[in-house]
Amino acid sequence: MELEKYRVLSRMARGMEKAELVFKNANVFFAHTGEFIKCDVAVAQGTILGTGSYEGEREIDLNGKYLCPGFIDSHLHLESTLVTPGELVRQAAQCGTTTFIVDPHESANVSGTDGIDYILEQTESVPANVYVMMPSCVPSTQVDDNGALLTAGKMKAYLENPRILGLGEVMDAVSVVEGSISMHEKLALFQGKVKDGHAPFLETGELNAYRLAGITTDHECVDYDYAMEECRRGMQVLIREGSAARNLEAIVKGIVEHGTDTDSFCFCTDDKHIEEIQRDGHINYNIKKAVQLGLPVEKALKMATIQAARCYGLTHLGAIAPGCQADLVVLDDLKDLKVLEVYHKGKKIEQEEKTEILPCAPKLKNTVHLLNLSEERFKLLCTGDKAHVIEMMEGQITTMDKREEVPWEENDGEKVFAPNASYQKIAVLERHKYTGKMAAGIVKGFGLQGGAIASSVSHDSHNIIVVGDNDRDMYLAVKELMRTQGGYTLVENGTVYDTLALPVMGLISDEGYETVQEKLSRMIPKAHEMGIKEGFDPFITLSFMALPVLPQVRITPRGIYLVDEDRMLKSPFDQ
Prior knowledge:
Layout: H1 3-13, E1 19-30, E2 35-44, E3 47-52, E4 56-61, E5 66-69, E6 71-76, H2 85-93, E7 97-102, H3 105-111, H4 113-122, E8 129-134, H5 152-155, E9 164-170, H6 173-177, H7 181-189, E10 194-197, H8 204-212, E11 217-218, H9 224-232, E12 236-240, H10 248-258, E13 265-268, H11 274-280, H12 283-292, H13 297-304, H14 306-311, E14 328-331, E15 339-344, E16 347-348, E17 387-392, E18 399-404, E19 408-411, E20 414-417, E21 423-429, E22 438-444, E23 451-455, E24 464-468, H15 471-484, E25 487-492, E26 495-501, H16 513-529, H17 538-543, E27 553-556, E28 559-562, E29 567-569
Parallel strand pairs: 1-4, 1-5, 6-7, 7-8, 8-9, 9-10, 10-11, 11-12, 12-13, 17-22
Antiparallel strand pairs: 1-2, 2-3, 5-14, 14-15, 15-16, 17-18, 19-20, 21-22, 21-24, 23-24, 23-25, 25-26, 27-28, 28-29
């Protein structure tokens, strides 16, 4: 801080002059000590000057309401909300989230550094703090077919950007523990900075080696026991509660039951749709749910504020203390935790203020390139008695690999897979480089009947993914996404029911969140009406079925990938 500025603020901090803004009679949460104390908070030039008794040029009497530091989302992908970054940030900020640790690997997998630049540019002037973790795995693994390759050399240009905090989720754990040169070049490039993890279900030795490489966080823990294995190794567990992956209850219940110290835990959303944010909240929802499960509110608030700030080296955030940025949340009480007002740098975030949708480069709206598309290509020949079936599980994005007999029928002298209420067909088509690669498989547990569902949001390579119970509707669904240059679509009995166009990299709508919300409010219930189980978010769950770093089985344009065995099958009927 410049000396002259300090002298001015110091006089206000000492009460010698009125502060610009004072919050009077607040029950202030002191994140460093985890306690509430009734006092005033003085603010000037976007900075907290002090706590105690103050007079201000402008005063806001909170009448005993609760004042907390702005909440921090420790890990999320802005693209997964389907709306432009500025819209998402404004909606989540109204829920009290004032800091976002963003991993733009969705954009990078489609458009490389152009995608990263898009996220940085779109969030430059939003009413919140948006930091970026440099995507580490583009593509996620060598079995993926994506739109770009992000090497350590391409990352160097971003190292001096103050908004780049470190290396994004390192999901290629095999390359880490086996000492891949290209992976360790990236790790070395971010020496001394935060390196986010993505390490579900590693064995003890592998987890030790993974941590040895300098990786310090993970958001992929789905249960308490594994979360504790990571905590014991000095990792910060980012407890995820999003639209598809909901791990908070399992982990927090374990914390409460065992009386576990919570210093090694933070909160994140990872992937959360905007209509859920508007309905349920954002990080404030994580806090509220944790408290409902028995976690003391003070501990939940520390996880959402100062612990996340410390994890990412953001010493000016996460607390109401002199010198910290004046990011503040006013809560009605400590039971319902209703957010009444939110301030960023001392300025109130207005609820009704509309976000300007910024344009993007034309090349980011031309990213769906398919070759040799035909209905015939969706036919799946039965070449064995049993098939590898991708069993989807409600409330999770993990899958089970099952070897089962599946229904079939005779077609022009060939034995072909015949979907029914239990088993449907799934296919993935490469959409970036006109390769024509495509693979088909079998899913169980999803339940779709009488049509098809398709998406160009397909983590992390974002190829076209489609599930259906007949080839005609699957073909029509993919054709529809070619027409819109990406999106979500539902086809029922030979007719497109509705489509949410996502023309920006096949990931984002630029029509405004109202359009996105209106479309999803029609399409999601319709997908459930067509048989998809209530425990699934139809589109988000579908989007993870091609991610080859999550157990146990996935599908890529190259075939069926057995994750635990690191083995690709050309057909689900292969051994």
